[in-house]
Amino acid sequence: MFPKSIPIPIPGGLHGPLPRFVEVAQKLSTETVDDVDAVIASEFARFSHIDLKGKSVAVGVGSRGIKAQPAVVHALLRELKAAGAVPFLFPAMGSHGGGNAAGQEAVLAEYGYTEAAFGVPVKASMEVVEVGKVADGTPVYCDAIAHAADYIIPVNRVKPHTSFRAKHESGLAKMLAIGVSKHAGAAAMHFHGMQNFHYLIPQAAQVSLDNTNVLFGVGIVENSLESIRHVELVAPADFLERDAALLELAKASIPQLLFREIDVLIVDQIGKNISGSGMDPNVTGRAGSGLPGFDKGLKIKRIVIRDLTDKTQGNATGLGTGDVTTQRMVRKVDWTKTYVNMVTAGVLNGARLPIVADTDRDAVGIAIRGCPGVESSQARIVRIPNTLELTHIWVSETMMADIEADPRLEIKSAPFELKFDAENALQGTL
Q: Helix, strand, or coil here: 207?
């Protein structure tokens, strides 16, 4: 049993004076698709030559909290029904949701993907069919229920991955190679390590395309506000080419912190609905995999993780890339879900336990203590809600010169003190 309190009696204590803060707006990419229904209808018309009357269509949805995806799925289902198809939803999320059907269905329900909400059945199973092998003999699988349907449509956001760099990262190719292939496929791919995903993912995706009835894929690119910047329906013949092109667009659209050096980054929440790694290393520069390619010039000395999102359902993937966390956070962790995810991915560092502070105030103090030569009152501190929502953040006055030098940063408040309640929990929301 983890102790309910861990005293840290050190000279001077943990609660040194903190700098004042200001609310700052970051001006990031905000290009937006105004009418999702119209775009999906127009894109769907490109496939009107395919007779879908009476055809069953398996629409694969993943485990990520893609804010604008429900609108896309609603529009897609509307077009499929109008064409006479009989669509249903299925979880396309590899080993997530605890690696079992009930858990994966629960993940979809947490994001609102239910029969009541979408008007089509949700069919969850961990059974798979082997559909072929890549060049090195690694098997490629497909969800058995989806495989039995007349057509499959994977729906996914395309974005830089949180553990590796390649021509194909998070997107349509990976959705086929790992998401649609369930736990068996995820384990088969991850067995070789993410350092080999640069060839495994496109090869596995091509095997799947060659041996299953993929109607098309739906690729979504978000802007920094989590709205849709671009969405398109991708034909099987164009799958790999368009997946790579959409990744380049996504790289120019992801949120970021517009600073060069931060002593302490306070992250209010991590979770699988925020990032596949809990908190996005494309923002923090810290990849649990240890693979290169995430250094964008921002140096963060210490990271405090305050809490888990509700939608992550206890999955604390990425906790190990922080330096300090809280008792509140640790008591919400479902270690089985976390370990299944991390062991399957082979990224054991992501499940390690940082220093556990009794309170938020202690956590901030410990993190500052972990910055040699930094006085508490002079610490460069940034507070963010999570690594997905970065348009409004709190920044310490000690970073005022950085703010004033960057036209993309705008001060939105008068200086204020951080407030903690009677139990030393950090107050205020971003």
A: helix
